[in-house]
Amino acid sequence: GGDTNTGDRYLWAQSDLETIRLAAKATIDHVEWTLDNDNTLTCQPNDMRPYTTGTNPTTNIPKCSHTFEQTNTFELTATITYRIEQHISIRPSRLTPYPPANWQPHPTQPEIAITTTAGTITIGELHSLNTLTTNN
C-alpha cells in the first residue's frame, strides 16, 4: 500500500519483474443517512465532521446536519458510497521509476456502497431552565 499526494490510501501489486504495477483506491463520494421512515440526508465528505469526545456538539455545527422536530424511535443507517479508481503503470525495468499515476474509474465497478446500521435510536425532548442570579 501507499499514499497518494492527496493523502488517499491505496493498494497496489506489482509483477515479479517489478515492471508492471496495478494500484486501486477508494474515495468517499457521499454518505446517505436514513434518519427515519420519511427523512434521508445526503452529505458530501467536506460537509461533515467527526464527533470528538469532550467537545460540545452544538457548537460549530457542520453544514450537513439534521435537527429532529419531534420525539421518535427509529433505526439509524448510513450508506457510504465510494468511488473506485485504478491505474496501471508500466516501466521498462526495475531501474527506472514508474510514471506518475493516471487514476481512472475502475472499468467494471466504478463505485461501491456499504450500508451500516447504528441500531435503534430514541430522540427525546430536552428541557432547560435559565434563572437569574444576583451577586450580593
Number of strands: 7
Residue ranges: pLDDT <50 for 5 or more in a row?
none
Write down the oligomeric state: single chain
Identify the overall geometry.
Answer: elongated
Described by strand count, sense and barrel closure, the largest sheet is: 7 strands, antiparallel
| Total count of helical runs of at least 4 residues | 0
The secondary-structure element order is: EEEEEEE
For the record, give the distance between the C-alpha atoms at the N and C termini, rounded to a whole number: 67 Å
Tell me what you see in this structure.
With about 140 residues, the chain is mainly beta. The chain is about 0% helix and about 45% strand. The protein is built from no helices and seven strands. Strands 1, 2, 3, 4, 5, 6 and 7 form a seven-stranded antiparallel sheet that branches. It is elongated.
Short description:
The protein has strands spanning 2-3, 9-14, 20-34, 40-43, 72-90, 104-105, 111-123.
Keywords:
136 residues; mainly beta
SSE inventory with pairings:
Blueprint: E1 2-3, E2 9-14, E3 20-34, E4 40-43, E5 72-90, E6 104-105, E7 111-123
